TrEMBL record:
CDD domains for this protein: 5beta-POR_like_SDR_a
Organism: Asaia krungthepensis NRIC 0535
Protein known as: Oxidoreductase
Annotated ranges, domain PRISE-like Rossmann-fold: 66-354
PANTHER family: 3-OXO-DELTA(4,5)-STEROID 5-BETA-REDUCTASE
Length: 354
């Protein structure tokens, strides 16, 4: 039967890639966002603020999707505020839908902070035992991922639809203006190093430099979300999702440098702050953008160094187990080097980097 999707956060990193996957599968896709000007013509725009129930009800009036996909979040100053705001976003959508009882499936994208803790207590305390597995219980304390899950579970029980939760590691893929985008941030950093002679220093911790780790290609995540939403095995389950390979930054860093035609600086032996290194470079990027005819001259729109610092600064090993997903029937795989290379090539083709 025809499938109709409502993607919450359709302009973001996950939402854009998920929309591409669903459209390729023949779905009708409605994309909800506060600003919909950047949505392609293939996506039906739904302009609304998920934290404004009145505008949400008006925007969703007459819309009866078979599937809802939550791919966005909002950041507040404390985790308590994060819990309130992000739980409200989900709850408001279910309340605003004219016929939530007609939903077949709802998907929620969270992440490894399910195992590592929220930003204000990130990777602190006793380190979790790796690899991260879905069977691990919730951590003590507030975590907006848990608050989101509880809203999802409650709505599914009340309205009778299936659900799935997807927990990616750092997502690598194309999107602009989103809060967490390490791949694009590293591309911007490398471009600035090439243009200015600034050393291309790995900004992360010694553990992240030398230990095994993994990432999630946005296309891999989209594939798993589609699989779980259409497969009986994906009903009412939470799944980790990474590429399926592992790597060390100590090896990959020089390969990224070579892609941009620069030398990787020696690792200094301790974490640096990429946010500090890029501070004050707004004018440099604006000049570079003008000189090369780039599409975006605002450094804050193309780079999120605070998030890259949080990811690469972790003092613990981060390896994700995919056994459950594979056992349930999802066998997708992506080569991480190809993930980065594809992203860098697309950023250059779209005139985001020189």
């Amino acid at each position: 039967m025809p499938q109709t999707a409502l993607i919450i956060g359709a302009t973001g990193l996950v939402g854009q890639n998920l929309a591409n996957r669903l459209l390729a599968e023949g779905w009708t896709v409605h994309g909800l966002a506060r600003r919909v000007e950047s949505l392609p013509d293939t996506i039906l725009p739904v302009q609304a603020d998920t934290l404004d129930p009145a505008s949400l009800r008006e925007a969703l009036a007459g819309l009866t999707p078979s599937h809802v996909f939550f791919t966005t979040w909002t950041r507040r100053s404390t985790e308590r505020e994060n819990c309130i705001a992000n739980a409200a976003m989900l709850a408001n959508v279910f309340e605003a839908l004219p016929h939530p009882e007609k939903l077949v499936h709802a998907s929620l994208v969270t992440g490894l902070k399910h195992y590592l803790g929220p930003f204000d207590a990130y990777a602190k305390g006793a380190p979790p035992v790796t690899p991260f597995r879905e069977s691990m219980g919730r951590l003590d304390g507030e975590n907006f991922y848990y608050a989101q899950e509880d809203v999802l579970f409650d709505a599914a029980a009340r309205h009778g639809f299936a659900w799935s939760v997807h927990r990616p590691h750092t997502i690598i893929g194309f999107a602009l203006g989103n809060l967490m985008n390490m791949g694009t941030t590293l591309a911007v950093y490398a471009s600035l190093c090439r243009e200015t002679g600034m050393p291309f220093v790995f900004p992360g911790s010694p553990v992240q430099w030398s230990a095994l780790t993994d990432v999630t290609d946005a296309r891999q995540l989209a594939s798993q979300i589609h699989w779980a939403a259409t497969s009986p095995a994906g009903r009412n389950e939470a799944f980790n999702i990474v590429n399926g390979d592992v790597f060390r930054w100590s090896t990959l860093w020089s390969e990224i440098a070579a892609w941009f035609g620069i030398e990787a600086a020696p690792y200094p032996g301790q974490a640096s702050s990429l946010e500090a290194m890029l501070a004050g470079k707004e004018g440099v990027w604006a000049e570079l953008a003008q000189r090369h005819g780039l599409a975006e001259s605002d450094l804050g729109r193309v780079a999120s160094p605070w998030h890259t610092d949080a990811d690469l600064g972790r003092p613990i090993e981060c390896v994700t187990d995919m056994s459950k997903s594979r056992a349930f029937g999802f066998t997708g795989y992506r080569d991480t080097r190809v993930s980065f290379g594809d992203l860098f090539s697309l950023l250059r083709a779209r005139k985001i980097i020189p």
